Amino acid sequence: MKKTVIVLIVVLLLAAGFLEWGVDRRSAQVNEEGGGEFNNAARVLDFLGGVRQYLAYSFFIKADRLSHEYSVSVNNPELVPYFFLITMLDPQYVRAYYVVSGMVFDLGYEQEAIDYVKDGLQANPESSDLYYSLGMMYFQQGRYEEALEAFNEAAAREPGDVSIMNIDQALAACYRALGRSGEAAQSIVAAGIAYNLLKLEPYADSDTVRGFVNSVNIYWSLAHGDSIADDGLEKVDSSNH
After folding, report:
1. 63-97: per-residue pLDDT in tens?
2. Which SUPFAM superfamilies has this protein been placed in (predicted)?
């Protein structure tokens, strides 16, 4: 009986979330004038949507120990439905998409994992982490051109948990795999710049990094006749490591 009640609550919250997204499409902070009964219903949907997101957050926090266990040991397929539920409750929970897609890929369901991370990107099109995850999957499959495209998409966005240094290293690996050694070297240098500058200045912003890269570009151009590929340094967040 208890399990049935829990399932019903989750289903109702999911339904509220779908209604909130499909019917309302407004946050609770939007100024609502002249909407009448629709606005009253919208407020209820906003409230239920907030409960839904909080429940997803609580599930993920509770699963944190299991998530860390997954990352350092053999994958446990029993965890997969749990993380699926989190992303259903809150499609904006990027970390849950990141964890479960990698888990599913490592369990041997490679295309399913790729499809799932693409679903995550539809809900979170500005997620650098999910593009990085997609690129890693393509790279492991030997699909280097597609991996390169995904890594470039990751580099063009504000970094999340995955640092810009790791993205530039992934770009370098792709260029090497494609036989483009010059661009591989440039990406390695760019990764080194990001790592060393942020190590020296943990709170460096993107303008500081850009200025430093530009100064190094001058010396690179004098020595090699071209400049460091710095697309991956468009935006740098001080939280990266």
Report:
1. 555 555 544 444 567 778 877 877 887 788 888 89
2. TPR-like
User: CA–CA separation, 32 vs 26, rounded Å?
Assistant: 9
Where are the alpha helices (H) located in the chain, listed in sequence order? 2-19, 37-62, 64-72, 80-89, 94-106, 110-123, 128-140, 144-155, 164-177, 181-200, 206-224
- The DSSP call for residue 231 is G
Q: What is the dihedral of CA 85, 95, 156, 239, to 10 degrees?
A: 160
Whole-number Å distance between alpha carbons of 45 and 27 = 10
Instruction: Read off the pTM.
Output: 0.61
- d(CA 84, CA 68) in angstroms, rounded, equals 17
Q: How far apart are CA 150 and CA 221, in angstroms?
A: 28
Q: Of the candidates 102, 121, 118, 98, which has an alpha carbon nearest to the alpha carbon of residue 110?
A: 102
Rounded to whole angstroms, how far apart are CA atoms 53 and 82?
15
- Check: CB of residue 155 under 8 Å from CB of residue 164: yes
Domain boundaries along the sequence of the chain: 48-125, 147-227
Say yes or no to pLDDT of 36 above 90.
no
3-state secondary structure of 126: coil
User: Contact at 8 Å (CB) between 154 and 128?
Assistant: yes
Cβ distance 155 to 122 under 8 Å?
Answer: no
Fold (CATH) for 48-125: 1.25.40
Residues 6+ apart with CB under 8 A from 230: 190, 210, 213, 217
What phi, psi does 35 have (nearest 5°)? -90, -15
